[in-house]
């Protein structure tokens, strides 16, 4: 994980990874959110995911990412390369 933060990573469980980041002591004093991304068709195409070969896309029914506002809002996605 970047920024020296270690969390147990669970492949295919984006909501659990985001939840673990949300509870990490490094972020305890900052506003933070877990954001779910989906659409009516439940087909969210994402590039750069660890579950896909390099350069290819993966399609999930939804995806969850962690957001934290330190000096500015940042998006953390442990599933990204």
Radius of gyration: 13 Å
Biggest sheet, strands in spatial order?
1-4-5
The SSE string, one letter per element, is: HEEEEE
Can you summarize the main beta sheet? 3 strands, antiparallel
Number of helices: 1
Gross morphology: globular
Through-space gap between termini: 10 Å
Low-pLDDT regions: none
- Helix-residue proportion: 10-25%
Mean pLDDT reading:
92
Strand content is 25-35%
Supply the helix-strand structural class. Answer: mainly beta
Compute the number of strand runs. 5
Describe the SSE topology.
Layout: H1 14-22, E1 32-37, E2 44-47, E3 57-60, E4 63-69, E5 73-76
Antiparallel strand pairs: 1-4, 2-3, 4-5
Task: Give a written overview of the molecule.
About 15% of the residues are buried. The protein has one helix spanning about 15-20, and strands spanning about 30-35, 45, 55-60, 65-70, 75. With about 80 residues, the chain is mainly β. β4 and β5 form a beta hairpin. The protein contains 1 helix and 5 strands, in the order αβββββ. The chain starts with 13 loop residues before the first helix and ends in a 5-residue tail after the last strand.
Structure at a glance:
The chain has 81 residues and is mostly beta strands. The protein is 11% helix and 31% strand. The mean pLDDT is 92.
Distinctive features:
5 strands, 1 helix, mainly beta, two-stranded antiparallel ribbon, single chain, three-stranded antiparallel sheet, 81 residues
